[in-house]
Fold each of these.
Amino acid sequence: EKLRPDLAGFITLPFHYSTDGIEKSNLRTKLFAIIKIMNKLSLDIWSEWDILWSKMRNEFFKVESLQTYQEESTSLDMWKRGDKLQSIEMMYKDFHKLSLPNTKKSVQKIRIRIVDEPYSDYIEWELEVYKLVNIPIGGEEVYIVNRKDIPNYTIGDFMMFDETSVARPIYDNKGALSKIETYRNNQMQKFIQAKYLLINNANRLNDV
């Protein structure tokens, strides 16, 4: 059943399934069934995302707080191996196409990146992606917040649309997405307060 766009609450997307105990003869059937379920749920989640994005008129505000995410990227693999020049060439090829659709939405796009020191390999790589792709091509404003400056911050990642709705991704301990929660109306106050707490402790990436 399609998710009603007027429903607040949360959308659940279980990405992780155990194949322990499944007989080999049944494994392919089980996996195809899992993929079918995941595809339908993914469509439901991105349908909700499309609704929030299409209704947005002024500002998209995104917060990222994990120090690593589960991500398949040739560029990231190269960076971790120390092949940074090749990684940079690859990240431009991989990511600039993903940022192009964002340029068609004439809204202010603000990204807050919460970091711990010293930076993880993932953070170092991600900041380069922001400098080469998100800022010049995606038209984003990217800001860095040191976690030690916000000791009482507990919300984690979230995306806010015009201060009227929020999509909050929830990740497992490996940095893989497990569900997305959405909030609206009288549920917004804590996210708006978090937004200004982060802004007050942020430094623009170009200035760091």
Note: The beta strands are 9-12, 59-64, 108-115, 140-146, 158-161, 165-171, 177-184, 203-204.
Amino acid sequence: AAMLLSTVSKMQSSEITLEKKGPVIQIKGGRIKLDLPCLDEKTYPEIREVAGEIFQTRLEFLGAFVNEAGHALATTDSNRMMNSYSVEMSSEGSLKVSAIDGHRISIRSNMEGKPDAAMVCEGKLLKESCRLIDGEIMLKKNHDLAELSGKDIRIILMLESASFFNLDKFVEDTAKIKLKVNREELLHSVEMAVMIDPLVKITVSDTC
């Protein structure tokens, strides 16, 4: 796959033809013609379909929410849940995307009320899938697979079987504090504070 991708991406022709000749696939594009070795298609693993009890909805903001919550994905592989997104959805298309890395919690949501379905998906896999699909995403899922589809593309993902963290224990609706600060002033204050200690304590009051 990597060899085919590298070859096709370097061809400048608007039209590319592929022709299989025994154990070789011939690629033609403009003045370029290459023969690449290929495997027997019968040995390719069967692609599993999303079947059984299926939840289906259209998600307009999945890609944006996944990207915006991604800063809270863990950068190590020590905990699979911290490398994953929790995605909760309603049948009308509203959703809630959450990530946690042990230091930060990031939640992007336009959902009101309880979700109709939820899934936990490996972070890099979901981010790359959303990047490949422009605009609205059609989602189908069962208990262990999710299918994301858009124009001319369909991606099937394996879902994590374990339950995600109960973020309600960390984020209480009754304890929300909303404030507006000057971004440059906040960054400057944090940069000055970490020169002394990497741990920063932020005090919020109405007299600041």
Note: The chain is about 20% helix and 30% strand.
Amino acid sequence: IEFSVQSHSVDVCTEHNDQREVENVFKGVVLEDSIALDDGSKVVLTQDEWADKMNDLINTFQNICIIDDSSADRIGVTATSSVLDIIVDEIDTFVKEHSIFTDKITIPNDAVYRFLKQHCKDKLKDLEFRNSNQKLKIDFESNPLKISGTKIAIQKAQQEINQMMSQIDSQNHRVTKAGVDSLFSDSTKAQSIISPVEEDSETIIIV
């Protein structure tokens, strides 16, 4: 028996006259399976990488597999029994690597968090942009920072943010001039003095 799997049918060539026996043999050779997609993995179907992966699998297993991604919550695979598990495992691995996950990075103290938020926004936005194909999003409006994206993107973000934090230096300075205490006792007045200095010098000042 020779056969070719098409999009909606299977072409069978045989010299056997018993159609039912041919059908039984065929049903034992061609199998179906599917990979379920949750909310975090549905985005995989919209990625260019998925189109490339699917075409690569179809070309590799030409005429012996069908990959159906027309459903929003599953990827169906029809293939011969000899290659079905291989194809399903490859798709499952791909889905896990390209699904969207969430994680958090806890900033060790308020001064470092304020520095990142006030002076590193452009760097964090650039980090997002460079990993936009991995769906990276960084919410730095609260501590811990919330990160979403593929596992690869989250790992890159964690590495770069940790590197940013490692480059932030902290020093203590005692000011003993007369009248300083009264000047900074009013938080509104103190902030009006400190804010321009922080902006110009790219520092965070905690009194």
Note: The radius of gyration is 29 Å.
Amino acid sequence: ATPYAPVLVYTNIERRLVSVYDLKSQKLAREIELPIAPRHMVLDTSGTKIGFSDSVDGGFVLFSPYAAAILFTLEDFPPTSDVLFDPNEVDIYYSNSLTGSIGLIDTNTKRTFEMPVTDLEGQELSSPSRSLDGRYVYVANYSTGEVYSLNAFSKVVYRTFEIGNSPARPYTTPEGVFLYMMDKETGRFVSIDQHQFEQYEDIVIGEG
């Protein structure tokens, strides 16, 4: 559901359809056929746009739930899971496991730019997360157990954290103070102060 209008948006992956349901009238308002399979769906920080991506065959669609219309499509786009909207409402980050990179979509120019985070191709990267101020973008490498901190302004890896054999997608606290990282295999939990990038906690809280 969108925050500023009584609209519910849902998808059909097999039929490549987006359905817009009017909660006020309790009727299906519109169905839109997409050029990609909408396996992943993310609402932007303003609540006015949705990013659809396909982690199997690739492709990206930026969609307006209020206009019930496609804003633009990138069909020559790598397979990726959930995208990450920057609070500047222009940049959209994504992970490209095929090239070992964090990618950036400029919604003004509809062009992409990729920043390598590992020299090894074919790594399995998590969906990106970000700091509250949008200064850092984080992504876990499921293949190596590392978590990368990318400076969103300089577009270079600022820090690399060794978490374990099976890192979870990194997250930050709502107030933006701490970065949380965890190894799903051992239950190791690490928290980092995002201001100084100093370790605050490193404990084992349980396996699995």
Note: The CA atoms of residues 184 and 208 lie 5 Å apart.
